[in-house]
UniProtKB/TrEMBL annotation:
The lineage of its organism: Bacteria, Bacillati, Actinomycetota, Actinomycetes, Kitasatosporales. Residues 13-85 form the ABM domain. It comes from Streptomyces spororaveus. This is ABM domain-containing protein. Pfam families: ABM (PF03992). InterPro entries: ABM_dom, Dimeric_a/b-barrel, Jasmonate_Hydroxylase-like.
């Protein structure tokens, strides 16, 4: 499997940056994460996501959407709302969500 950044899209588009520290006991989290990864591509405005976790436990996920309406549709999805409630109740010690509009985007891929 080749790992690459999400491609650059024609701006403007929206990004949601979710930074978090997970709780020591995150039972059920991997299964719910897999379900969210299965569900979100069904959103017509979803463009992709990138996610990383530091050895110290800081996790950052950046999700990209065509517009604010697409992001709102994802936020209002009933399964996603249930996952968010469980995250606050069980899986996260803390988190921050930043939402912004991307005004400029470009990329680079080395050939060969």
């Amino acid at each position: 499997m080749i790992i690459q950044p999400v491609q650059a899209f024609e701006p403007p588009y929206v990004m949601a940056v979710f930074s978090n520290i997970r709780a020591a006991d995150d039972s059920g989290y991997p299964e719910t994460l897999a379900r969210m990864q299965e569900l979100v591509p069904g959103n017509p405005g979803y463009l992709g996501y990138e996610s990383a976790r530091t050895p110290g436990g800081l996790g950052i996920t950046v999700a990209y959407f065509r517009d604010h309406e697409s992001l709102t549709a994802w936020r209002e999805d009933m399964e996603h709302q249930a996952a968010m409630r469980q995250g606050r109740a069980d899986w996260y010690e803390s988190y921050t969500l930043h939402v912004g509009t991307v005004e400029r985007s470009h990329g680079f891929v080395r050939n060969g």
